[in-house]
Amino acid sequence: MSEVYAVRRERVRERCAAGGGAAALVSRPANVRYLAGAAPLGAVLLVGQGEDVLLCGRPPSDQHGEGRPDEALRMRLLSEPGADPAVAAAGLAAGQGAESLAVEEHHLTVARHRAIGSVAPRLRLVDLGGAVEQLRFIKDEEEISCLRIAAEIADQALGELLESILVGRTERHLALELERRLVDHGADGPAFATSVGTGPNSGRSGHRPSDRRVEEGDFLSVCLGAAYRGYRCEIGRTFVIGTSPADWQIELYDLVFAAQRAGREALVPGAACRDVDRAARHVMDSAGYTDGLGPVTGHGVGLEIDEDPQLAPAAMGKLDACVPVTVEPGVHLPGKGGVRIDDTLVVRPEADGGPELLTITTKELLAL
Amino acid sequence: MSEVYAVRRERVRERCAAGGGAAALVSRPANVRYLAGAAPLGAVLLVGQGEDVLLCGRPPSDQHGEGRPDEALRMRLLSEPGADPAVAAAGLAAGQGAESLAVEEHHLTVARHRAIGSVAPRLRLVDLGGAVEQLRFIKDEEEISCLRIAAEIADQALGELLESILVGRTERHLALELERRLVDHGADGPAFATSVGTGPNSGRSGHRPSDRRVEEGDFLSVCLGAAYRGYRCEIGRTFVIGTSPADWQIELYDLVFAAQRAGREALVPGAACRDVDRAARHVMDSAGYTDGLGPVTGHGVGLEIDEDPQLAPAAMGKLDACVPVTVEPGVHLPGKGGVRIDDTLVVRPEADGGPELLTITTKELLAL
């Protein structure tokens, strides 16, 4: 496993070294973890001309979920409380003879950038931009297998909830129970705050669970995900509570299901991200729900729950094989509720059977 | 309540206006909430020469815990997906005729700072520094009453746990149960990730709950807190599992208790923060646990769980009346475990009875 990290760091080094005499300072936690195997709180990674160093303010914890630092990596623990590892890294780079240091300007604050500049005034600070995020875009099979396990865990937690009595329980309780079950099944923790919406709250994107109780006749929409070895997946389903759904519920569900299927089917290597979005959006538009969808119909997942690509009308870029994304259209009718269906899939060539569905809980409209 | 926010914003305006023609852009979420009553995800606050504006990427949610924006405040919702409210705010400030814009350089990234500079090239960008954090340092009675309720909730959740059977349950389960109870008792949510440590994990600061099960003879240390209307408290206790503690456990507990009491008793308006730290640390040192304590023995709490002041050997600054802080010394013996005792208190003058203890769960060594 250690070799994987060294190869990744080598690719960062190649990008920087084009100009000569360059080092890179990686501070965004998910990027640090991608290159170093772990990201202890506040740690930064110096990708130097010679040696790479992980600088931490506190010792890395070997506890479940945090990851273990690559053993081939030198680690430096800062003893002075409050010392900024990024500033120490810049001093180290200057000491190694680097002429320039590429920093993540989209992550580093102005104040830290200034502190780095003053500790190493001869070091030219340049922008590393999204170089590490670009490396993270396409996942290797090791990463995909972590996502696959994360998805299995989420499926299990959701499946168990469906077997329990739901009427009369609050959104908060259901969300907490789901999170407990995720951990029971081996997740590091929830991938994001679990969302449970009932009745008029159902179908709302990012709904925070409230004290509303599940009632007969409600739509119940649930969105959850597990983190496993740092990798995060997402699943969303909508159910109906009681003996049988009302006509408007069936119609709305079928519509969102059709939109979600259209989005899933558009996931092919080389497809433009905006075309995947359009495929799902077109189904909704045709049925008159022009403003029904939110700004995105899906997004990449990996070490962060929301990463590139975005599936949105103005998105640039194309999909590629081995890129995991969510497809999650939804519609919410104010005062009435709505439907959201969300899967995590991996883009695969047609020759390999097309997109690989990681979250396999049924998408039939279940009456619970 | 609305007036409180207007008064706070007025104080920010006064700081900026010293130079004339100045506006301020507040981006740090806790600072936005302090000045605007709510901080919807990604929102920023423009404190202008004339009108103040809250700029959001999505509509504020009226759901429990997020806070409601001050009704006296103009709100602007950005319709373009992905638009940065900070950039829009800078454009607005320039349009209002501001000559300079004070930004939070300790929060804003280099990339956002640059984007602001390019949208409003005539606007001189200066540093607002920790001006809002300084205003937040001393709490008003409304804020303290939120902290008091948060502490009550944490006390209740902890009290209920103590009545249940503990042996055989994992750290993870106990932590999840505590978090469920916090929510049951009306918390917005946990103030931070609940820490439960048993046996060799007990007494470790910030320990992440593992799958270790509680055993007879263990120390069990628990650290939790509730968020209530955005305000966060903290309580930590250590218990012994079984019929009676071992001698080494009693000795270690008494020592940490004495250190914690010394810290609490040093909380008087005007005391130097480092002296409070020293009071607690001195007790440990005298008993030979020179390196037993972590880098801080306590910290401020409020809209964030870890804010100014820091109670640490090199801390600058003094306490004041109405400043809430934690006092939380602990010691951990590798392989054996340890003790941590943590309270949230409000500094009060002696004439008012001295420090007000918010977390009132007993600090006797309970054998459970």
UniProtKB/TrEMBL annotation, chains A, B:
UniProt GO MF annotations: aminopeptidase activity
Q: Which InterPro entries match?
A: Creatin/AminoP/Spt16_N, Creatinase/aminopeptidase-like, Creatinase_N, Pept_M24, Peptidase_M24B
Q: By its UniProt entry, which Pfam families does this protein fall under?
A: Creatinase_N, Peptidase_M24
Q: Where is this region: Disordered?
A: 191-213
Polar residues composition bias: which ranges?
195-204
Per UniProt, residues of the Peptidase M24 domain are 146-348
Q: Which domain of life is it from?
A: Bacteria
User: Keywords assigned by UniProt?
Assistant: Aminopeptidase, Hydrolase, Protease
> Where do the Creatinase N-terminal domain residues begin and end?
8-138
Q: What is this protein called?
A: Aminopeptidase P family protein
Task: Tell me which species this is from.
Answer: Streptomyces alfalfae
